[in-house]
Amino acid sequence: MSFIELSNINAGYTKGNPVLKDFHLSVEKGELVSLLGPSGCGKTTTLRTIAGFIMAEKGKVVVGGKDYTYLPPNKRNIGLVFQNYALFPHLSVYENVAYGLKRRKVAKELIQEKIADVLKLVSLTGFEERLPAQLSGGQRQRVALARSIVIEPDLLLLDEPLSNLDAKLRDEMRAELSRLQHQLGITMIYVTHDQIEALSLSSRIIVMNEGNIEQIGTPEDIYEQPETPFVARFIGFDNHLFGKVVGKSEEGLLVDVNGTTLVSNRSPGSFNLVKNGDPVELYFRPEDIELMVGKDNNSIEAEIDYANYQGNTTQYALHVGDNKIRAVLPGKPFTADVKSIRISISPDKLIVEKKD
């Protein structure tokens, strides 16, 4: 049995109207697993069900071989880190971190020892007497982490913990979380809607949509081999072109787009499900586009609306017919005086979806 097992779970905020229906989830000991998906997909509901803030109407929650299904939250040895830190504003760093230990009636000398160790772990030694208002956002988040870790939980649950930080601090805290997880070997479940966070932190990613799991895999699997159109769109296949199937070849599926034939050899389903004349949608990432003046294999005419130089990359806004396209290419803008261009996409970078 896995370290965490959710079996046949029905859970939600209104009785008889579950967000999660017959939901299954398994997490191995020592993993850092991200629940990734848009708002309202069931990520936080899953986390709250594991924590005991939502009691499942049906099914079973097992952590470390113990049945947690009907245990109240305070009886579950779980650490929690929230988006808003949830620190006591009138208590010092030391008192905030000590709170859980005091509730467990740990001896005073041992509390001092544990707090010294955990503050060193999160690089906050010397901040013991400061109040949360005297700390930066990143420091407050490290206090919240220290408070959760110091109780030596079986499991650490993190609910969008970095979303209130600016971009630089998010990068720093991602690195800090990764270091702590590897150093402590603690099992973590991390809720986020940010694919970069999920890809950079996780040993596995669980992509959720409308209370269901769309795909489970390593970051590489999720990024390179999306199994459903939803996962493809959510994980960065932002561009799309509409067309219809005009044939098949050894290279892949032939799709007519505005009178130009493009080849795709990737599909979340099966090419056998489509036939000539079927309407389809082609998905591709902004970074998988090449721009050129002359014709090339698997290219289609486009027009540049504008280009934004961003240092090591340039972002282009283009359109192909009525379809708006975004491209991200290394270096300076392609050229200032060329409006008509061709975009080229390799067949293995085009994902095709049959439209109903």
Description:
This protein has 356 residues and is of the alpha+beta class. It folds into two domains: 4-233, Rossmann fold; 238-354, Nucleic acid-binding proteins (OB fold (Dihydrolipoamide Acetyltransferase, E2P)). It contains eight helices and 20 strands. The chain has helices at 43-51, 93-103, 108-121, 137-149, 167-184, 195-201, 219-224, 229-234, and strands spanning 4-11, 20-27, 32-36, 58-63, 66-67, 78-81, 155-159, 187-192, 204-209, 212-217, 239-249, 252-257, 260-264, 279-284, 289-292, 299-309, 313-320, 323-330, 340-345, 351-354. The strands form four sheets. It has a six-stranded mixed beta sheet with strand order 6-7-8-3-9-10, sandwiched between helices. A five-stranded antiparallel beta sheet has the order 13-12-11-14-20. Helix 2 packs parallel to helix 4 (137-149), helix 3 (108-121) crosses helix 4 and helix 4 (137-149) runs parallel beside helix 5 (167-184). The chain is globular, with a radius of gyration of 25 Å. The two termini are 41 Å apart. The mean pLDDT is 90.
Note the total helix count. 8
Query: Briefly, what CATH class of the largest domain?
Result: Alpha Beta
What oligomerization state is this entry in? single chain
Counting helices, strands and paired strands, the structural category is: alpha+beta
Which strand order does the major sheet show? 6-7-8-3-9-10
Radius of gyration: 25 Å
